[in-house]
Amino acid sequence: MPRENRVTSKTGIYHIVIRGINQQRIFNQAKDFQQFLDFLYDVKKQSGFTLFAYCLMGNRAHLLLKEGAEPLSQIFKRLGTRYAQWFNRKYKRSGHLFHDRYLSEAVEDAEYFMAVLLYIYQNPVKAGIYRSTTEYEWCSRMFLGKGDGLVDETELIRIAPVSAIKKREHILVEESMIDKTGAVRRTGFSDEEAAKMLRLICGAQSAPDFQGLPRDIQMATVAKLRTDGVSIRQAARLTGLGKGTIEYWSKVSR
Predict the structure, then answer these.
(1) Contact 12, 66 (CB under 8 A)
(2) Are 145 and 139 in contact (CB under 8 A)?
(3) Are residues 133 and 242 in the same domain?
(4) Do 223 and 246 fall into the same domain?
(5) 24 burial level (CB within 10 Å; 0-12, 13-18, 19+)
(6) What is the 3-state secondary structure (H, E, C) of 215-249?
(7) 56-70 average pLDDT score
(8) Within this chain, do residues 23 and 134 fall inside the same structural domain, yes or no?
(9) What sign has the CA pseudo-torsion 243, 247, 252, 254?
(10) What CATH number should be reported for the domain holding residue 140?
(11) 135, 155, 177 - which closes a domain
(12) Total domain count for the chain?
């Protein structure tokens, strides 16, 4: 089936999502997050795009940017190739790291820009990793108004002033995204919690580590994760196994 053509943004601004193949984690340790940002900084200088926001999660990265001299395809060929090669060397793995091609969504007016910006900022809260958008160090919201040398904050506040961003965030909180006690409403485990469970059960620090374990240990680990409440989708992300394999092993291990 042929791929659909990408929608071209009249403003040149896009919300980009990069995902791990089979929803596998693409960031396992703090060094991985930082290395991706270092590569992003280098590619930004080469390609000349404007970066408004970023948020790196375990198995994906969200970016809000404006195309510069080079097209998106060239930007993400540079970034994806450099990071995948580095990641594969570090974890002694081979093959594709990212799912298909990156996802891009055109952002063509200020109101939608604000909506996308807040969506990116809210990722750690929605995932149950942190209570506040300002606490997660791999999201540019933490540095809003301070500058981190990566986001083009002058260009950001021309479209979305800091005061307007904070006002909209306050409205989101009042609308009960977070309850009045400050506790995040959530179900299940965050990826970080589930990854800790994985380490405690079998010692694996990453999906490549897990895939190097003997099959019986893999099956026992999957069974334990599922018994403890980790979802099939989440177990697949953490282990790098297919969802069908997780489901089957869960059944045969009962």
Answers:
(1) yes
(2) no
(3) no
(4) yes
(5) buried
(6) HHHHHHHHHHHHHCCCCHHHHHHHHCCCHHHHHHH
(7) 93
(8) yes
(9) positive
(10) 3.30.70.1290
(11) 177
(12) 2
Residues 6+ apart with CB under 8 A from 123: 55, 57, 62, 139
d(CA 128, CA 125): 5
**pLDDT one-digit tens code per residue, 73-89:** 999 999 999 999 999 99
- What do you get for the CA distance between the two ends of the chain, in Å? 39
Tell whether 160 and 230 lie within a shared domain.
Answer: no
Taking each continuous run of H as one helix and of E as one strand, the counts in the chain are 10, 4
Looking at residue 143, what DSSP letter applies? G
Run of H or E residues at 136: none
C-alpha R_g of the chain: 19
What pTM was estimated for this model as a whole?
0.71
100's tokens:
């298909």
Let me know whether 64 and 139 are in one domain.
yes
Asked if residue 75 and residue 98 are part of one domain, the reply reads: yes
Answer yes or no: do 124 and 83 share one domain.
yes
175 vs 57, 142, 180, 240, CA distance in Å?
A: 24, 22, 10, 36
**Per-residue pLDDT reduced to its tens digit, 183-237:** 444 446 777 788 888 888 888 888 888 888 888 888 888 888 888 888 888 888 8
What SS3 state is found at 111?
helix
> How many whole angstroms from its chain centre is CA 17?
8
Say which amino acid occupies 158: R
Does residue 171 form part of some domain?
Answer: yes
Amino acid at 62: H
Measure the CA–CA gap between 68 and 62, rounded to whole angstroms. 18
220 with 248, same domain? yes
Residue with tokens 């060929």: 77
